[in-house]
Amino acid sequence: MDLFEKELQEQFKLMSERKLDADDKRQMIRNLRQTVHSTHLTHRRSFNWLTMVSAVVAAVIVVAGGFAVSGHLQRNSLFGANSGSNVPQKTALSPASVVVYYPPIQSTGPVPSGPTIDTTINVGSTKRPVPVLTASRLNVDVTLHANFQDVTFQPVTLHVDGTDANDKPYHKNYIITTSPVHLGKNQSKNYQTVIDVPPNSGGYTVMADSPTFNPTQRSELENILFVNHGGYYQTGVINCNIRQLHGIISLTVTQVQMTPTATHVLFTISGAPGAGHAPFAADQHTVLQQVIANHGSVRTVNSALVAWSGGPVHGQQDTTLKFDWEGDPTRSNAEAIHFSIQVPIIINGRLENYEHFDVVIPVPAKK
Amino acid sequence: MSTDVAIEHLFNLYADSLYRFTLHSVGDPTEARDITQDVFYRALRGWQGFRNESSPKTWLFQIARNCIRDSFRHRKKTTNNAIHDHTVTEFSMDIVETKIWLDGLLAQLSLNYRQVIALRFIEDLSIEDTAQVLRWSHGKVRTTQYRALRVLRSLVDESRRSCSLHDRR
Q: What is the ipTM of this complex?
């Protein structure tokens, strides 16, 4: 091994210390346990079906495609428009598509066109019957699509409901993605999965949903004015408007006016849903993920305290801070979220004063 | 040991390794997390068929490799590239946060080279295990490793040259 390789080995050792985030790990374990409880046994049963059917019939596994539009069965794409028969014409696995839109497209609203598009029935989810007659495995394309605005899709799950050949209820969940998926306006992201269904049954409903399906949230703190009047500071108008509880919260702070010298603005988030006034850090369901500023630099002091430092500020400065924040939609005792902003005014290196005010973001009523 | 306990045990042992391997292959932390999760779903489903012909670690890496391959196939099919542009940026951020220099250079290698380096040097797998994971011959692993290191060396040299040039300026 030469010097180069030795040096690389050292670097690689450091790289091998990179690990999954502990929260991600916990979530993954939870998902695995959930999968074990909800799907594993049924999966094995369906696998046996597959094996049996393959062995006895030695038939080609045929998969249905061409889902119904507007929630009813449509077999034309699989069986051929004029076949007049239920015998499948295709032998390959045909992808089916389930599209999850945000904002949800109402049945009366515009239905977009395209090969993977279907009508949205439920808010934030699509539901469609699957014309499965002889299939036991089905490729499903799940497309997440943000129609009109930025959106965060929380874990996306595919539900398969129906009855098996013996008319027994059949239900299975497939977790498509566990991590939040952030999509910009008009962006899409596709996931593929293979689902198992017992063959020779009447059909299934496949529904993809995103239980904590969140729009982008915007809370605008406008026209915050800090005006020096001989050591006293006034606050301006705070206009807080947040529509939903979960998702990305953008705090837009404009016209920050500080004289003579202010070097730091501390944004403190002191409330959390269901956790009273405990800091976000105390609530494991709530993660302050990211802070972006368009002016100066930002550092996270801890998950509940964010400092913006743009150097000494004279006169008027505009800045925008975006907090990517994830809440817990399952908490029923959610309270208002409190954001407070402190502006320490440092003159000649000494903390002279700071302005402090609270911003209360009301929790919207649950739908 | 029941299936779920076994898989959870394997998760605790190998989730980080699989994540690193996946991350080096796909370049996107979010996608790497999803794939890592998917590996264990598949492992859960296939556990009954696992016949101990290889070590569980090698078996999981084989599943990971399949998941990565599926992911790349899917990328080719996907028409919307905006996300991928985004993921490149995300990966760049990750590079900044972690081992900027070497990570950046590794990202320039082909998938085969990245995978063989990740398995051999970062995850410390033997030639034999690497061959099992990648379903290659031992000879191919050795050759690919040699070539990957050669390319990496040239990238390192180039990078250092440009750095020293920059310093002189």
A: 0.74
